[in-house]
User: Fold these one by one.
Assistant:
Number 1:
Amino acid sequence: MSSGHRTMTLFVTVILGMILVILGLSAEWPMWAWPTLAALLLVVAAVTHRVLAPAPERFPRELLPDPDLPLPATVRQEQRVAHVALPSSVTDYDFSFSATVRWLVLDAPEDAPYVNPAGLAVEAILQRARLVTAQQPPHRSAFTQHQLDGALATMRPESTGRIMAMAQDVSLSLPELDRERLAKLSAVRKDEDVWEHERNYERSKRSYLSEDVLKDTGSAVVWWLSRNEEEVEGAVNRIGLLAQLSAAANNEEVSPPFDHLTSTPNVPYPADDGYAWDRPFDAGYPPSTNGTGTNPDLDSFLAWFGFRDDDPDVDLFTERLVTLADAHGKHEAAEKIKSRFGDTEEDGRSEGLGDEPAPPDAPGQ
């Protein structure tokens, strides 16, 4: 007897019993009627059970031509692949691929050859994964892993048409050494980019100064005045300096109209200026110009320092000049200074100046 048969019998008996109880209470049946009611319910239950009982089978189910055998247990057709190298878009930088490959064997003709479903499924999944990883750079392994999760999540037939395959639990990574190399290369590329931008900026700035600002003296003056609009007098005072800057920037001499405004003479100093090195020092002696009017002589140099004809410190200063010239390898100039001031020192001694104590040397002499 099946569970549905028993449930139906119990349901009918309970419903009929409730109806009879309600009628008995409403009609106020005598006490002897209640046992009769209970016996009646038992009879009704037995009749209902018999009526609802299924007809017996003529032949046992096991003896039928196609018996209803129990369904076979489901066999999970899957295989785990781990640490398979898949190429990236950069040569020699391979991903490490791992996944669980699942497949479904499709119907095949009777004369079809026997195949290894696991091998076909793994090969199909690796080919599909390779198409994705080969397009991605190696430093994006996490992003590529999510792409593979979607690309391999669908059952698709492989090339022979014998199975359908998919993959789950996909894992994609890059070896630690390769990650370190990529990090170093990335840092170097960033430094090169910064250096290249700085070099381009410097090149642009030099071009701007040489080809625009310092193209000529007029451009330099206008540039300075544009940055100092309220200092017109200062611009006028700086014309000579700006003329020198523009001339130096273009490897030229200062233009004649601005030559008189420059403070530094631009006539080369001759090797032999014709200076009389053997005559006594005289601060009032007119400077030797050698016909040019621009080359100062040694007397003018000493006078510029404030020495007078009778200054007792002239000899000490010239001795230091000689020492300084020797220290810089200017031995010819040192000999000329010695010959130039030798007579002065002897004249001073002959006049009795030698009896006076010499001025003390400066500290450290």
Number 2:
Amino acid sequence: MKKTATILLILFMVTSVFSQVQESDLIGTWSVIKLEINTANLDNIDREHYEPLKKALKESIFEINADKSFTLKIDFKDLEDYVQNVIWSFNKETAMLTVNDRIGGKNEDEGTIIDFKVYENKGQFLFTALDDLFYLYVKKDNVSTTNPEYANKTLEIKHGDANEFSDSNLANIWTDANSLNDLAWHAYLEHNDIDVLLKAIKIIERSVALQRNTFNLDTHASLLYKTGNYTKALKKAKEAIESAKNDNIDYSETTKLIDKIIDKL
């Protein structure tokens, strides 16, 4: 339990720097749309836990409820049962959201399970985990957390079967830039079929047309790289970095992508 507690005490921070977050901004259900790794900090985590935790975080869901209850839905044995039905508090001055067990209470150190710092920039949130090892780009879901069909609806498009790229699924998210980016990024990570990847490029182009941002520009560059369009991939990756600089978002993973693209040119 001590190792688990140590992991939990350094888990989940949100970083960016522009607008001040209100407590009401946090209330809702958040799902991960993209995960990046800061490999320089790998020594901060037991290697035995690294791969399963990385996979679990990519599919994790955070529920921050108005009644102060907090739930983390994650398929990771050291966390999944420990962070259920706990309470949260928010310090607006420090932008620090703290999750406590109900026995410890918010003023007792031994009751603290998770601390994470929260900043929001142009509607985008970034959760960093394990002392800046994992960067979790998240979106707020519009589905009520009391709906038992919530999880299936959320994951159907990201990790569904052959229908995940169907016209009906695309129609449901065609005006949602974040969901389109989510689906395109999933295609980049999980698919190698050229027809699927080319369709994903059309999907991410639609996302960029709706709301051009660091995240979908990076996804666009990644898909172009994977399909062998290296010159255009380099251009889009540079655009993603420029956007990240403007919004004070970490772009280390995009820099690594550029290095891979240059190796191919």
Number 3:
Amino acid sequence: MSTTRRTFLKAGMAGMAGGLTAPAIARAGQMKELRMVTSWPKNLPGPGVSAERLAKDIETLSSGTLKVKVYAAGELVGALAVFDAVENGTADMAHTASLFWGGKMPAAALFTAGPYGLTPLEHRAWLEQGGGQQLWDELYGQFGIKPLMCGNTGPSMGGWFRKPIKSLDDLKGLKMRMPGLGGEILRRLGGTPVSLPPGEILTALQSGAIDATEFLGPFSDMAMGFYKVAKVYHYPAFHEPNGAGELLIARKVWDALNNEQRRAIEVACSAEAARTLAEHTWRNAEALKVLKEKHGVRVMAYPADVLAAARKIADEVLADLAAKDALSGKIVTSWLAARDHLAPWNDVALRAFLNARLG
């Protein structure tokens, strides 16, 4: 081979190598490592697994420019300290649920669920089509945080009890783990709501610190082991007909990302919301069967008087919430308007069909 030809080939190969490695070098320069804290025990079926899956999807969709390290509850901060951790910079992101933040923002719970409120699909429609996301951004923006829905565990169950609830009188003095607006309804019904992080619920139930608890649906509840202590599983979850999870992102972190990275996070969150809803719908059906047939759990409807009283009090709780401050009023008004807007369609599209399917 001539010297001239050899020189030409070397130059060509060098040029090709430079062209191939330039994007990788650019990506390496843009790569950010983000700390995600969560409110869940490590690898808890449902939300704990979802957080890990979301982190991997963000890395994949961002072409490796974002790497997310996940910390389970207690590994970096406590389960109920994740909002503060994102606000003060201890963490960059958090995987959690808005119903934990009522003390900071009275209307926050509605972005997970509200009593006698929106179903999972209705909730997503409100966020994406009915102005809910803009209100959520405004609410959390006061704390320098960008929120996104990043999961949905679907409708919850009413709760776990040692003895059946046969009437309103059985709620008097009952100590029950129930955060959010459902806890306020329980209080007005004569019970005592207790707010506990998920990882502490079973121990409190075993020790008698609480008499009853609610959490999610059969899939995650069975993994938590509540059936070992309480054998009565009431339904429906009038307090939580939806189970939206949230990703909190420090606003300064969000603003520093490029458009592609922000879009990667949005797409990953949207996909995880759809995936978890499908997963929980399927797994809840499986787990409910196991709980009844293998573990002897009694699955029982709440008495009619309990549901009627809770419905009346829910209206009062929402009215009081709307009166707390101007932004809470805007959120409650928007949320109720979404419920009213969607109800007529769901009556003819879903309720009528399900009734017809039952014969």
